[in-house]
Each structure stands twice: as structure tokens, then as C-alpha cells.
Amino acid sequence: MISADVHTRHKSMTDIAADMLRRLIVSRELAPGQRIRQAELASMLGVSTMPIREALLRLVAEGMVVAESNRAFSVTSTTEDGIRDIYWMHATLAGELTARAWDNKTDALVDELSRYNKDYKAAATRNDFDALSNANWQFHAALNRAAASPAIVLQLRNTLHYFPVFGSEVVGWTELAGRWQAGILKEFKSGTREKARQVAVSNITRAGELFILSFWAPADSKAATAAAKQRARANSKPK
């Protein structure tokens, strides 16, 4: 899984406000359909309402916020199926990029991916989330460069808004990302193009279920809880 902002170093107040709003929406602290109060957000960040409004307009373009006729804003009414659709789009695009990178693979690329995977494992032993995020981002950035398909990468980035901060907010994501990298490396070293694609697709699909389990599963439903546990067990099994 790739955090949307892991490689960003310098941000404006609008960037910071947009990141905060995404996290509030993703975690459902701002519920689907809820009115967004600009003054409260501005007070929380200690800024004027202008960067808050600019951030909200940015999220309107991303589809996470709805602009109303009276200059007000509300959270888009997203559903679990809508979240699965977003992860399906991400899986489809990432799978195609992985397949194209396989087509263009070289010994140098495999060495580079192996190095980032080694960095990832080392960071995991230290529970260093910043280093985990960086190694994971570097791994997938190398794949995307090898795919040589910038138009697809651009669309892929548009699906990242429903990906929380890497590893720190979704139980199981850190381990899943490690298995994803290992699976990619195995197929790049001695596997096939389509199996490499499937590694990406299957792991992103499981990531979506873990995301829903963390933020969207209704806690008061016994049936939903049982289904969530079953999905979690399935997500924990490497393929």
C-alpha cells in the first residue's frame, strides 16, 4: 500500500488542511453526508478560513466533498461498496503497471526492488513507520518508472485518497505490504507476467477489506462482525 503523502516534504497550509480533511473523512470522524464547518477547522489549525476553503474545493475535485449551493460543503455519501470500487480501480491500474514493469524488467530493476524490500524488512524489525513508508513508496515508485506509463500512474494517484497514513492506522497493512513486495520479487525473478499482475490485484483487494474492517464495519452488527473476522482471517493468509 502506498501512502498518498509519504514523499511530500514541503506543504502549504492548503496542503496541510487537505491532508487533515482526508484523514477525518477516511476515518469517518467526518461521517458521510455530514456538513463541514469551515470556522471550526480553521480554529483547529490556527489559520484563516481561506486555506480551509481552498482545501475543500480540492477535495470537491477529488470526489470526497460536495459543494452545496449556499457555499457550504458536506462529506460525500460514500458506502462500503463505493470504497471497494475505489480499491478495485486501484488494483486494476496497479496490476497493469506491474505487468508492464515485468515486461521491461532488468537485472538492475530486480536488484533495486530487492534493496528496497531489504530496507522494508529492516524497518519492520524496528517498528519504524517513517522508514517503512519510505521503503514501500520507493519500491512501488521503481515499479511505476519501469512500467513507463505516466498516464496510468496519474490515474493511479487519483485513487490514493482513500489510503490512510501507511501502516499506522490499518491493522495488518504492514504485514500485507511485505508479502506484496515478496510476491512481486518472486514473479520478477522467476515467474510470469500475469502472476505478477495477480500479486498486485489480490493484495490491494485484501488491503481494501482491511481498510473497511478498520473504519467502516458496523460495530453493532453481529453478522457484520462475524463477516469482518472471516475476511480478516482470509486477509492474513499469504498466497
Which regions contain 5 or more consecutive residues with pLDDT less than 50? 2-9, 220-239
Mind describing the biggest β-sheet?
3 strands, antiparallel
Structural class: mainly alpha
Order of helices and strands: HEHHEEHHHHHHH
* Helix share bin: 55-70%
What amount of the residues lies in strands?
A: under 5%
Q: Give the overall shape, derived from the CA principal axes.
A: elongated
Distance between the termini: 17 Å
Radius of gyration: 19 Å
Number of strands: 3
Q: Strand order, biggest sheet? A: 1-3-2
The residue-averaged pLDDT reads 84
Total of helices = 10
Give the topology.
Blueprint: H1 13-26, E1 35-36, H2 38-45, H3 49-62, E2 65-67, E3 73-75, H4 80-103, H5 107-126, H6 129-147, H7 150-158, H8 173-190, H9 193-215, H10 222-235
Antiparallel strand pairs: 1-3, 2-3
Helix pairs in contact: 1-3, 2-3, 4-6, 4-7, 4-9, 5-6, 5-8, 8-9, 9-10
In short:
68% of the residues lie in helices and 3% in strands. The chain has helices spanning 13-26, 38-45, 49-62, 80-103, 107-126, 129-147, 150-158, 173-190, 193-215, 222-235, and strands at residues 35-36, 65-67, 73-75.
Overview of this structure, please?
With 239 residues, this protein is mostly helical. 68% of the residues lie in helices and 3% in strands. It is built from ten helices and three strands; from the N terminus they run H-E-H-H-E-E-H-H-H-H-H-H-H. It has helices at residues 13-26, 38-45, 49-62, 80-103, 107-126, 129-147, 150-158, 173-190, 193-215, 222-235; strands spanning 35-36, 65-67, 73-75. Strands 1-3-2 form a three-stranded antiparallel β-sheet. Helix 9 (193-215) packs antiparallel against helix 10. The longest helix is centred in the middle third of the chain and has 24 residues, at 80-103. The model is unreliable at 2-9 and 220-239 (pLDDT under 50).
